[in-house]
Amino acid sequence: MNFLGYRRPDGSVGTRNIVVVLPTIGCANEIANRIAKAVPQSCAMPHNHACIRLGKDSLRARDTLIGIGRNPNIAAVLLVGLGCEPIKAEELQKEIGKTGKPTMRVVLEELGDYDTVVREGIRAAQILCGQAMCLRREPCSLSDLTIGIKCGGSGAVSAVSSNPAVGMAADMLIQQGGKVIFTETAELIGAEHVLAKRGVTPQVSRDLLDVVADLKAEIARYGVDLLGSEPTQGNIRNGLTTIEEKSLGAIVKGGTMPLSGVLRYAQKPALPGLYFMDGTTQASQLFLGMFAAGAQIQIFSMGGGLPAKIRGLPSYPPGFTALPVLKVLGSCDDEAEKPYFDVYAGDILKGSESIQQVGKRIFDTIIATASGQETCTDQQGDYREMLQFYANGLLM
Hints:
With 396 residues, this protein is an alpha/beta fold. Helices cover 36% and strands 17% of the residues. It has a 7-stranded parallel sheet, sandwiched between helices. Strands 4-3-5-6 form a 4-stranded parallel sheet, with helices on both faces.
């Protein structure tokens, strides 16, 4: 089976064709936004990374910036730097440029003043957009696809409606040679032994158990009770009572295929299959991590309740056009929100549709979206938020 995508110089395939204006540090956000505003075909990606992050958080930020630029949905990259930041534009340009895609940079220290940086940035963005506009979609194999999966608004119905239907679509894509990434380490607690049994090797199983054990140790160090955070107050309202109950429902969204590997945040999977990415449950941070790991589409499985009534915020950072998000709604109590979701799974609960039927509709929607069909999140208007980099260490 095929979809229509943009073939990149390194052989990867984009479902979108975005020219990104990427600041190397949060201090350069304003310059990046000003450049992109003058070149409407481009997209600025302001973010919250700062020099005050240390050690592994700084390394993770570097991996994330490189991963953003390397994502197949990005046609070309204009890096915007100040010159004093630890992660230099020149270094990022070199690493992103290994994909063969056009990559340019403007740096305040090199060009001397604000107006010159903006002027040269606009000129560079226009060049990159002109090149990207010449590209055309072509038939590509489903084995070229990587999708990320996240759930939210979880409740008693999630494990029997939207999550298993999403899991079935994930299985179908993997059977076609694709890659699937899911995450949220806290939502493995109490169910990690179930997922670990599916590891393709004993080492993969140990890796999974280790990331959960590390998180449990960190929680113990803080001396806190998870109740109210995991499960959240919204989860409790929706019928969940314990983190174990939530986790058993959450892992269903990953389908039934063997677990091929455990990834660090923003790490790209090397081979086809199902992967777990170690990370927080904070939606926008996970969204960015999966994008940096190469996901060209994200699926957001919504249980229901109050989060289902928020048109965009639970699932993705609004204004981020480079990664299409498919929203799946599981609760029939929230049927009035159907127009704001790409796939409605609530009929599973009514018995008028099977998990298999909804899973097939999700799979078909993945292919259509990969070929350029807009999603509900593409039509959310002009509200936007900056990208949130994942950090869990000391801030100076």
